[in-house]
Amino acid sequence: MRVLLVVLLLAFAGLLAVDLEPASTSRAAVAQPVRVTVPRPAPDTVEVAFVRNGWVVRVDRIVPTGSRPADVALRELTQGPTAAERRTGIRTALPERARLRSLRADAQTWFASFSRATLASGSAETKRMRLWQIAATLAPHGEKDYAVVAAEGRFATMLRLGVRPGAWRGESGENDYRYAPRGVELRLAALGYLDASDAGAADDYLTEQALLAFQGWEDLDRTGTVTGQTQLALFRAARPIPAARRPGRRVEIHRDLGVLLMVEDGRVVRAVHTSTGAGGATPVGNFAVYAKVLYSWSVPFQVWMPFAAYFRGGIATHQSPDVPSYPASHGCVRLPEGEAERVYRFVDVGTPVAVR
Question: For 273, which of 17, 121, 168, 209 is 20 to 30 Å away at the CA?
Answer without folding.
Answer: 168
